[in-house]
UniProtKB/TrEMBL annotation:
Superkingdom to which the source organism belongs: Bacteria
Organism: Stenomitos frigidus AS-A4
InterPro entries recorded: Glycosyltransferase_28 (IPR050426), UDP_glucos_trans (IPR002213)
Coiled-coil region: none
UniProt name for this protein: Glycosyltransferase
Length: 435
């Protein structure tokens, strides 16, 4: 059996990787997370090994301070804040992870695409690594828009010129992280990366999206859409006043757990639902105190945290910041959406919601009560959105899920070779290993 190390950002990315890590443990493997002290309790509670990195640079409480600042930001300001923190975390990984991996005798790394320097650590230690996409795939391709935009997909040359300009902005914003990677690769006598896509594994790259939720694009032959990994593992149990549900069509609204301190957004959502024959359940994600919501229009059922998976089983519509986990969980239950993207890859996820026909998006700059009420009514009353959401639900059910992802990982370790997808997406891994 193999001892896997997982390198990942904190937050929702951890929750996703917990499910994969649990499946690997069930198959007899050992799993250790390399992360900051603020993630320790959550990782240990999920029954994984934990080894700290960045103990001095990222002391207890540093993550809460960072998220408090980011929760008040949106757009490019939030993206810049995220990248600044990411650079610090990348430096920590490069400094501390090699010694931890050696000391723990970790044999392979599973590296979140948002922690790309983990691949450089694996190259330095001469151990295999596999890339995990807990967010939208970061593989750069000028045929699709950058993930921090709500630009729609188009195969035209004009769209490709537009996309190229967008990636130029991305290149400028990520310059310091590229320089940091180049510095360590030179120091460790590794070949330089010629392209951003060189950060990712040449053995297997795993995305929790279904293929049907991605724009038409070229991806490496060892890239696999396995579908989402959803369980209650790693999620805190929260109480919920189920007796207060009225039986009206349920709108579940959540702006996630990071960009969730913009009060006017919650106010607009509540006001937009007034007069509709619906019940609004609004989850604050811990970003604001319940007392701050006492003046919201209408009578929404407001909670600090919600049992999201259970509520989605009853929901007619999700209003979301377009965080990928919430979007995929909604689609797993066949629930259409209205997206209000705030930052990072949320605009790109929202654009895919529209492209897939499972909902609509409203940019923050165009968010008004009238606009939102109109879009809510449209998505609730037009059957096409529900039909497409059910199509995506079926695609998710046929994607293989965490079992397929774990089998691909095992095939990589068994053969030492790339695991390639076939035209249908799902591959016969037993045949792959035997061949």
């Amino acid at each position: 059996m193999t001892h896997f190390g997982i390198i990942s950002p904190t937050g929702s990315h951890l929750t996703t990787h917990f499910v994969l890590g649990h499946e690997l443990q069930r198959r007899g493997h050992r799993v250790t997370f390399l992360n900051i002290l603020d993630a320790q309790d959550k990782i240990l509670a999920a029954d994984f090994g934990f080894r700290v990195i960045g103990e001095s640079e990222r002391p207890i409480g540093s993550e809460a301070e960072i998220l408090t600042q980011r929760g008040k930001l949106s757009g490019i300001a939030s993206l810049k804040h995220s990248l600044k923190t990411a650079e610090q975390d990348m430096r920590v990984i490069l400094q501390d992870a090699p010694s931890v991996v050696k000391a723990q005798e970790i044999e392979a790394l599973l590296v979140d695409q948002c922690s790309p320097v983990g691949g450089t650590v694996a190259d330095y230690l001469k151990i295999p690594f596999i890339s995990l996409c807990a967010a939208l795939p970061l593989n750069r391709d000028i045929s699709i828009p950058p993930i921090f935009t709500t630009w729609s997909y188009s195969p035209t040359w004009r769209a490709k010129v537009r996309n190229r300009l967008g990636y130029t902005v991305s290149t400028v914003l990520t310059k310091s992280i590229r320089q940091l990677t180049a510095e360590y690769r030179q120091q460790w006598h590794l070949p330089p990366h010629a392209h951003p896509n060189d950060n990712y594994s040449k053995l297997a790259q795993l995305s929790q999206q279904p293929a049907a939720f991605e724009f038409p694009r070229a991806l490496p032959p060892h890239f696999h859409f396995t579908g989402p990994y959803h369980t209650s593992l790693g999620r805190e149990r929260v109480s919920f006043p189920w007796e207060q549900l009225t039986g009206q069509p349920l709108i579940y609204a959540s702006m996630g757990t990071i960009q969730n301190q913009i009060f006017p957004v919650f106010e607009t959502i509540a006001a937009a639902c007034v007069g509709l024959d619906v019940q609004l359940v609004l989850s604050l994600g811990g970003g604001m105190p319940l007392e701050a919501m006492s003046s919201l229009p209408g009578q929404p059922l407001v909670v600090s945290y919600a049992p999201q998976l259970e509520l989605l089983q009853r929901a007619a519509l999700t209003i979301t910041h377009a965080g990928l986990n919430t979007v995929l969980e909604s689609l797993t239950h066949g629930v259409p959406m209205v997206a209000i993207p705030i930052a990072n890859d949320q605009p790109g996820t929202a654009a895919r919601i529209v492209w897939a026909g499972v909902g609509e998006l409203i940019a923050l700059s165009h968010l008004t009560v009238d606009n939102l009420r109109s879009v809510i009514h449209q998505v609730l009353t037009q059957d096409a959105y529900r039909v497409q959401a059910l199509r995506l639900q079926a695609a998710i059910q046929n994607s293989g899920g965490v079992q397929q992802a774990a089998s691909i990982i095992e095939a990589v370790l068994a053969t030492g070779k790339p695991v390639l997808r076939n035209s249908g997406g799902i591959i016969n891994l037993t045949d792959h290993i035997q061949n």
